[in-house]
Amino acid sequence: MIHFRPDQPKSEQVLAEMRRRIQTGDYKPGYPVPGEPRMAEEFGIARRTARKVINALIADGLVYTVRNIGTFVADSKTGGPPEHIGPGDDDQDQPEG
Q1: pLDDT per residue rounded down to tens, the chain (97 residues)
Q2: Which of 15, 33, 63, 80 is most exposed, with the fewest beta carbons within 10 Å of its own?
Q3: How far apart are the C-alpha atoms of 74 and 79, rounded to whole Å?
Q4: CA 53 to chain centre
Q5: H-type helices in the chain, by residue range?
């Protein structure tokens, strides 16, 4: 759980935290992010607020959803599923083209 500032909406604060986790690699491309129920529990927010955060991440191209499966971190270049998921997914293994 994060300590919420009273002068900023909770949804914006959770969104900033989720963006930070994605950008720092805590959540890696192709791997799931917490769904609405888990996010609501982890941050102590309403599911409606969690849904708002997930929708904002989708709009930003940071995550994508697979119907009936979940929401996953998007490839930073395409905004969609990565080509490969697993060890060695960083750009240093990719030839420049």
Answers
A1: 688 999 999 999 999 999 999 999 999 999 999 999 999 999 999 999 999 999 999 999 999 999 999 999 998 877 677 776 666 545 444 444 3
A2: 80
A3: 5
A4: 9
A5: 10-23, 36-43, 47-59
